Records
---
Amino acid sequence: MTKSTEAGLPDSSQIQPLWTDPNLPPDQFLYDRMGPWPQPAPAYPMTRPPEVLNIPTSEDVAWWEWIGSRLVLDYLVAKLEASGLAKTDLTRPLPTDYEFLQIMTRTVYARYLRMESPGSAYWVSDFTAMELIDPLPGMYCAPVVCRFLLKDTVFTCVSITFLKTATRIKELTVTPTDKAWNLAKVYACQGAAYHALFVVHPALHFPMDSVNAITKTAVPQIHPLFQAIFPHTTYTLKLDNVVLEGEDTIVNKTAPTTAWDPLTANGYNLKQLFGVGYSGYKGLAAYPQYNYMKPWMNSGTLYGMCLRQYFKPFLAFATKIACVIPKTDPYVKRWADYCSANVYGFPDGLAIFDSDNLARVLAIYMWDVSVAHGADHYSFGYDIPLKDKFLRIRRPPPADINDGADVQKVGDVANLDDLTRAETAKIMFFNVFTLSPNLIDTTYAFKEAKLQAAVTKFHADLKSIDVDVRNIMPEFMCLERNLDPFNGPIIVDEWTIPASIQF
Ligand SMILES: [Fe+2]
């Protein structure tokens, strides 16, 4: 492509081709235009988003160097520590009503809270899709719906209803004064944990893989669209591929034979829940079909309010990037057509130039893979004690409202092996480990001075929003170096908001 002038100097117009030139050659693309691409998911392709199955070698190597090797070390640590931690877990009490409310309304579990009807004081968290799980022998799960009353900004849980199933011919509603209340809370916590792991959180991961791969393959590296998205794509394609298709993943059929699988069913069965989070379930309001343009940030909850606040600087930044892209840009048009063919709700090549769609699409991608995804892990890993996750339950659901008075501690519903596995998974998968550069230290390869100025302003806005967010919810994931949540005043940044999905 590069031509030389008669004096032997490179022709500068050829070295820096205009990024809107529709005839850019393959060497202007990250992988010579032979990069990753989405294809139908091997399991449940009718309901799940497409997967990226062929990972570029360089991304494979980077994942092993920075993440795979850490998982091996984490497993060795878990072998030493998990069983001791689990022994203590067995003796620990079930969550009190106050702790239960904190978990269900102030953490990532706030994602399920939905007003029962417009203007109602009652809210529900619906875990109907638990009926899809086929538990391993000796274990149980149940579809339940929690009902909350919101009064003066304070939630109270008024009931937990066990829905009809093949073995339960009539719904059972348990209230806080019933003897079955503790056991009912255990099942509600289980439903919430599985919906975090398999319904709402995967919707942050997997649809974005298509955008990640298509950007790398179909957008030239000198294009501002590529330069905006690329810093937020590191490690993710390989990570998601390992999670979904790896030999040792907790979502394949043989997962229960590993030492780190803490779950109650084989992974192939559980994978159905990924489809629920993407395609919806039975037309229920609790399970809307995924829509790229409508990410969850419900400001009726504190957790959602924090996510909404954080979205503002991303949109302002993305608007400045979108402004330098002409509405006739051929790469953006094709990029949008490819993405829209693979991701529900993504605007196509015509709609991408309507209104503020391009800015919004960019902002949603960057915000989703950094703040929204990171905050979920942080909340699930640190704000919800492991003993309150109840990933395996060995006590059947209550037969009536008086069944379960003897259920007082964690050891009444789970055994040592269950909790050792859960502690192992916590060390390996649930904890967060942000790699450098984190979100606030991320740089962008923009050539335009005004876009570099936009980066400076973006970083300043993020810092200012972080202060606001800390006032709303002090426990929300931090933007910058923060205190070790367990050991006190050790300053670390591995718990800060990451630039991409890397755990
Ligand atoms: Fe994740």
---
Amino acid sequence: MTTTLLQTTPGPNLTPEQLELQQRARTFVENVLMPLELQAEELGGKLPEDTVQTIKREAIAARLNGGRFGPEHGGQGWTMLEWFLVNEQFGRVTNGLHWHVPNAYNVLMQGSPEQIERYLVPALRGEGGDAYAVTEADAGSDPSGISTSATRSDGGWVINGEKWFVTSGDVARVLIVMAVAARGGDRLPTLFLVEPGSPGVEYVESPRFTHNYPHGHPTIRFTDVEVARDAVIGGVGNGETLQRAWFTEERLGIATHGLGAMWRLLDETVDWALHRVQGAHRIMDYQGVSFPLADSATDAAVGRLLALQVAGLLDAGSDPKLIHAKASMAKLFVSEAAGRCADRSVQAFGGRGYMRSNVAERFLRELRVDRIWEGTSELQRLIIARALERRGVEATIH
Ligand SMILES: Cc1cc2nc3c(=O)[nH]c(=O)nc-3n(C[C@H](O)[C@H](O)[C@H](O)COP(=O)(O)OP(=O)(O)OC[C@H]3O[C@@H](n4cnc5c(N)ncnc54)[C@H](O)[C@@H]3O)c2cc1C
């Protein structure tokens, strides 16, 4: 009965349907994903295939797959607010276990009907996802320096280059590759769909990273890889525009997951501090323990208001450039705050906080990358500073 649900968290007024969705996501996270965290950690992030299939089935049964995509493609057609409510729950889990929930990058919506049918629809059913390849050895924070090239051929295009840190590149059914198409003297950044099994696609390395997550981030080389004319997604030269929309959603996603992480960290740490007794007192009674938790609660509450504002602006169809800057602000604030929050929790757990079986220890490692990927904290500051100049102080901070 949706009407019996209580709105227990601060934020916008939610409809009974939205409260039911939030509760459905919470139940999935607590019953299906959280019990698998320690196994995932022990296995370096890679769960057995039958377990992965079970997670996918449960996610689909709970109608949590393909959230932002339309029902006609197998998604749920959520608003950004609804997407926020679900992703906040996903963020409460360690080891990136929510990555197993079938989904796809939003740029696939810009594909042709054939591309959507071939890659998006199966991805939302849990039958092979996508990976996004922009970064190169010499082009990270400044992607305008990418050197991967796409040259016209009789049948379509020939791609040459090497991409680094391709998240999920090891399991993806399709790679979304940013390459520069040359026309006359112009450099036209363009997104191409490349199947990993194509001749000339080579997996150079799959490095180990700080976190133990479900998928790797391999280095992939493209040598004379031939793709068809219709492998272009969103039109020649539109790569950067599509990427801006992609970044906005990804950065808000990082903020939203970070909020879930802070929520979980506070739940677990407050519970511990209320029950752990040392020197004849609960450690919560020592301000050295309780004040850092008060700071974490304040970080979590402020970050939530900011991220909810960005979600609301997206739902209202506000100025995309302003939203872009606000999403950077949310990512910057929450990723830095969540890192602080994890560090405080480790301290409150004492020696137990340094054990991999402890949620704070895992989050301390896992949240670190949120200050690096989808643009480092420094790059977010650059975007926000530019907004101050171009959109004005009032629009940027209100
Ligand atoms: C686990 C992981 C997964 C990733 N997944 C993907 C993926 O799926 N697809 C993809 O394309 N990329 C991915 N990346 C790449 C990621 O987006 C880049 O690592 C990030 O953008 C930074 O680029 P870089 O590593 O080349 O660092 P650099 O750009 O070399 O930056 C090094 C340092 O210099 C600072 N810096 C650089 N320029 C400026 C400036 N103008 N002002 C101030 N400071 C500056 C940076 O903030 C940073 O501290 C992933 C990275 C990691 C670690």
